[in-house]
């Protein structure tokens, strides 16, 4: 997604739940963190990778 679209979405979230850096955004949600990374053109969610890791982790 574009930077503008991501920041519009994030403007709806409480600031204390966000960690922002130049190339990564982390939103601390109820069940787990939501991550977005900047690939040089767009912001991409890491949800598919994180969800797969959670499903494959025998400790969860």
Write the layout of secondary structure elements.
Blueprint lengths: L2 H8 L7 E3 L3 E5 L4 E6 L4 E3 L1 H10 L4
Antiparallel strand pairs: 1-2, 2-3, 3-4
Tell me what you see in this structure.
The protein is α+β, with helices and mostly antiparallel strands. It is 30% helix and 28% strand. It has 2 helices and 4 strands, in the order αββββα. The chain has helices at 3-10, 47-56; strands at 18-20, 24-28, 33-38, 43-45. A 4-stranded antiparallel sheet has the order 1-2-3-4, with helices on one face. A hairpin with a 3-residue loop joins strand 1 (18-20) and strand 2. The longest helix has 10 residues, at 47-56.
Task: Summarize this structure as a short list of keywords or feature phrases.
60 residues; alpha+beta; four-stranded antiparallel sheet; 2 helices; 4 strands; 28% strand; globular
